Amino acid sequence: MRALSRWLLVFLAFLLPACQIFPPAWTDVKSEVWHQDAVFYQIFVRSFYDSNGDGIGDFNGITAKLDYLNDGNPKTTTDLGVTGIWLMPIFPSPSYHGYDVTDYQAVNPQYGTLDDFKNLLAEAHRRGIKIIIDFVANHTSSRHPWFEASASGDPQYRDWYIWSTDNPGYQGPWGQAVWHGSGNGFYYGVFDAKMPDLNYQNPAVTQAIYAAADFWLNEVGVDGFRMDGAKHILEEGQTQENTPATLAWLKDFTAHVHQQKADAVVVGEVWSGLDAIAPYLNEGALDLAFNFPLADNLVKSASSSSSFQTAAGLSASQRAFQPGKTYATFLTNHDMPRVMTQLGEDPLKARAAAALLLTAPGVPFIYYGEEIGMRGPKPDEKIRRPMQWSAADNAGFSTARPWWLPDENYPQVNVEAMNQDPQSLLNHYRALLAIRNQHYALRTGQYIEVSSGNSAVFAALRAAEKETILVLVNLGNQPVAGQDLTLSWNSSPLRGSPKSTVLMGPAGGKISPLTVDEKGGSKEYRPVAELAPGETWIVQLRP
Hints:
By secondary structure, the protein is α/β, with parallel strands linked by helices. It is 30% helix and 16% strand. It has helices at residues 2-15, 45-48, 59-64, 66-69, 114-126, 145-151, 203-220, 244-260, 274-282, 292-304, 308-320, 339-342, 347-359, 380-383, 415-419, 425-438, 440-444, and strands at residues 19-21, 40-43, 84-87, 130-135, 163-164, 179-182, 185-188, 224-227, 265-268, 288-289, 328-330, 363-367, 446-449, 457-463, 468-474, 480-481, 485-487, 499-506, 522-525, 530-531, 536-542. The radius of gyration is 24 Å and the shape is globular.
């Protein structure tokens, strides 16, 4: 029965009316800070594309696929339209994932050479794509020369890590062991025994990390960093996350990065609630912080066909962050079951989730393969499987056996197949990104909640100086008859009868005229007669 239902949902997805995308009705403007306009794409280098047939993805493989991400020509529609890339760790490491670093000023030889990386960076920049790299500053590998010297008792490096003669015995934030025995005492590692934490009470450690950052910014030319485990940088006794000392260190680090390269961006992984995330942005410790609670809200809304979670999450985010402070949005990342898996492989829910993400405030990050609906349950290796490019052997990822086998559904779920289908999830992502890239209001406009009177219908306004955008998404698998929308007084900048232009909607779809009173309110506005399952409308409203 479950399999039958799944195929029925796929059939319904193909029946969705074709979406139209109209050119922008006004000349777009750009933000003063480039990352506020960006859409990022997260890449696990090992799994993206193998250029040399060794079964492992590499820098040259990403370079070969850059036109898929953004070909640099705004007139074409065959690229995804991303303007930023986050590369998961590229440093030498004994692990497959790279989050235990052995050298901060070199690249993993399995991925290519530093010259290969510089070529990737140049080709990306030529297409208007910025690249940030994962910067694992909280800890190193236990095989890093610094730790090996520290563990041996070398007085120069002993206090580069956190040591205790006896086992302090307390556990970590999620109940894990954090003190690990060695022949020369016990050392602290919040994530794993193979990942000892650096001791930032020692100024020499900070200077070494600053030197590594300077190398990547000045000598290589990256556009910023994603700070892994940002909330764990400095412990204060048994308080092991989100300490004032961590906030202060990151504030200094971000200031240092901006001194080296004024427009570089520092993005932080602070996997906590809004009350803990907010100070990192409000106090200038980070340029961007991932909004983990909102990611959960977006996926839950798409999964449950209820707009409540997303509306509540967006409102809570507005209250938590000061005006002008921008957070990073996403659906899932490399540590979470993929969104398609969480949504029960429902293509309509995947379309709705994409619409929620790409019309929301914040700077969106798309995990590679999300745009084609790749599956991925735990363990982590399955979340990080090779990209599914085609129905060819090994999903078109490599001519050799990949480091990890691709998902068995790759003959049906792949880029090549979705390119041929105008109604595919991939083309839905392309359409959403094209509209976001063309409209400033969707990137940085104010979020204004709109009441739809139906929990299955998400409705919102994004308001900027020159335009306001109306967003409607049917989160359910059933058609929804036209819903009356309500704009509260003084919540909207609209007045009178704004001109409506449909940017996304069913072919031939028409929007009803809107009239707004002198206080910015409107009641019983029915924009469309019906919303099809999973359907998204994006409408530009102008005076």
